[in-house]
Amino acid sequence: MKKLALHIQILLGMVAGLLFGFIALQLGWESFVTNWIKPLGTIFVNLLKLIAVPLIVASLIKGISDLKDISKFKNIGVRTILIYIGTTIVAITLGLLLVNILQPGDGISSETVDKLTNTYAKSSGVTSKVAEASKQTQSGPLKFLVDMVPDNALKAMSDNTAMLQVIFFTIFFGISMLLIGEKSAKPLKKFFDSLNDVVLKMVDLIMLISPYAVFALLANVVVTSGDPDILLALLKYVGTVVLGLLLMVAFYCLLVSIFTKKNPIWFLKQLSPAQLLAFSTSSSAATLPVTIERVEEHIGVDKEVSSFVLPVGATINMDGTSLYQAVAAVFAMQVLWPEGLSFSNQISIVLTALLASIGSAAVPGAGMVMLVIVLESIGFPKELYPVALALIFAVDRPLDMLRTTINVTGDATVSMLVAKSVGKLKDNPQSKEWDDHYKKVK
Ligand code: ASP
């Protein structure tokens, strides 16, 4: 029998997980799901995180040392950052346009606000996010630069949230490797080339359990989700975010077809396993190894580009998150603080959401923390922060799943654009299977 394509297997796992979750909810099996099903999902996410740092280090070093010339790296770096800023500004502007046209805040009654406030304003989910945001805003303006430079490389590599520090160290290391000349760098280069192949093989192996893992992840999302009535009350807000995210996909397809001349449907199909995992895990950081594998082996972006563009993108380029922040901030103002809805405040949102998306960690729920920072920048009344977050908290998880998918799609699109612009997009990418050499070692 012909094996089903990976993205179909994952999709089937997701649908089965959703159905199983709903059945479990009806039968009162929530604790069964938490105790016996969820752990598989957690193990899978841990496995992906486990290889993220070795993969970034190996592939970035391989990428830089393959360049042979530092000016090429500068070229790729500058293009990447500029295109990332450009797509993020498009996302925020789109979010602002939609929320102003569709006015999702209009339909929200004061009973709904009260109900949400009573349920969520004092919940640990909301209070911890407000506290985390205030910790971040108390630091100075250059804190992000200071944070990027680790004082201990091994410590940075042992901390999954210190991705930018790892990238900084690795680039520094890779450039120094170029500078010592090809002959002296050869042993190291061979080592990292081989390490890179090994870690990519680990991605293939981990993906073998992905259909079962997404089953577990989604079943757990269903049994831990909140009241469906609230979802209905917030339908217009959810619809605005979803419409914006869909338009972003159309925007990426347009960019791919105009600038790389590739078929956008082919692009989405090749990327789909990474997108489905982003949706299931709500974490671009956990999805990163799969994104790298798909973009290099299936889409044909050269490692010299992808090894820099993708890890940097996972941390600083979050188009879905920034669109969401723009919609959520204005939605909260429409409901709770209509007098704040001025043009200048909306411009402030563009700037702060841009910086916030750069500063957001690539983990579930990070976008909500940054939303507080966006609200603060426009002088939103402090005492209303918990109410504003309570308003959107109930539907944050499904929106997080969707915006993470867009974040990953945005990174992959930009990697294609940069690759094409420097002549590093292959026409016939060769993908490797997990069992390419299996017969020999069996
Ligand atoms: N979960 C998102 C990501 O990992 C960040 C967020 O919007 O909360 O990309």
Explained architecture:
The chain is mainly alpha-helical and 442 residues long. The protein has a single domain, classed as Proton glutamate symport protein (Orthogonal Bundle). The protein is 80% helix and 0% strand. It contains 21 helices and no strands. α12 runs antiparallel to α13. The two termini are 23 Å apart.
Write a compact overview of the structure shown.
The protein has one domain (6-427): Proton glutamate symport protein.
Q: From N to C, what is the helix and strand string?
A: HHHHHHHHHHHHHHHHHHHHH
Note the gap between the termini. Answer: 23 Å
What share of the residues lie within helices? Answer: over 70%
CATH class, named Mainly Alpha
- Global outline: globular
- Radius of gyration (CA) equals 22 Å
Largest sheet: none
The fourth-level CATH homologous superfamily is Sodium:dicarboxylate symporter
CATH architecture: Orthogonal Bundle
Oligomer: single chain
Low-pLDDT ranges: none
